[in-house]
């Protein structure tokens, strides 16, 4: 039973899980279909719950060196440009929860995880390995098949972990598993050099609220660049799940927005449009076990979610910490593993998904309902609004 645990997918969730397992003494092989590790997308937000996990696996310092700790979330009206409220972030949240709130380029986070994995003696990364299916081997072990440039190869493992994203190939092999669906929202992403952005916008995370659309932005790469994400309620007409978009067509959505917002949106020459797809955390199992072999899902493969709570990456990072602890306490072949994992993760992740959906509705209100929302936010104040997230931010991983 000395074969390593196999993780399919070398994204943020897979690499983080590999480090969490290796930190607890397990041998891990990470298999990635791409010939080289690259990250799609731009920025992400790492709240204290995620940063506690990154500290535990020894990468928080290297992530923080490439990230930014914004002063606050500056919430504004997309229509008027007026400030609605400010939610304090740094150093307020670190003082409160013992870990920072960071904004990072996805590539920087993935690079830090990859470098740590490459340096770890218990982790092997194999590129150019596309998951092709699985079977049950002897004693309930998993036989995982992979396509490579040299042909097909089969690896035996006590535990197979699918961390291969919202369109997970591993999930498709699990009977009754939920499938990814389009959420009715799209994201338009662009980045700018810092010198093109007003200095006051480089200190905060910006959140602009508007009818059927909202805008999020924040500094990246330790303040060297600026991430813009416009999120819109609309249908998806393209043939693929991401596509370049005509700049003028995109900007028509924001014709009636405040000049200060339009000046930011006017800057990028190119925007990339993404369909936001999700996987219902409560629909179907997160894996299979027993006589079918131990196969578990993690991150977007189990619960891809809307980004309106800024917790997609954090939930994948939490998954890895919890799963590594369970594997250590129960063993990778224990038939109780799946049930214990679901007990500890499903309810929390489903609640975060519900929070993200609710935020999306609140952000996109119009007319009298938007005025009421803005009034409530102003009266409540930033610190009181942040307390609604306390149940998310105060979470910490099991001790090693």
TrEMBL record:
InterPro entries according to UniProt: FAD-bd (IPR002938), FAD-dep_Monooxygenase_BioMet (IPR050493), FAD/NAD-bd_sf (IPR036188)
GO molecular function: monooxygenase activity
FAD-binding domain span: 5-353
SUPFAM superfamilies named among the record's database cross-references: FAD-linked reductases, C-terminal domain (SSF54373), FAD/NAD(P)-binding domain (SSF51905)
Keyword presence, Oxidoreductase: yes
Cofactor (UniProt): FAD
Domain of life: Bacteria
PANTHER family registered for this protein in UniProt: GERANYLGERANYL DIPHOSPHATE REDUCTASE (PTHR13789:SF318), MONOOXYGENASE (PTHR13789)
Protein name according to UniProt: FAD-dependent monooxygenase
Native organism taxonomy: Bacteria, Pseudomonadati, Pseudomonadota, Alphaproteobacteria, Hyphomicrobiales
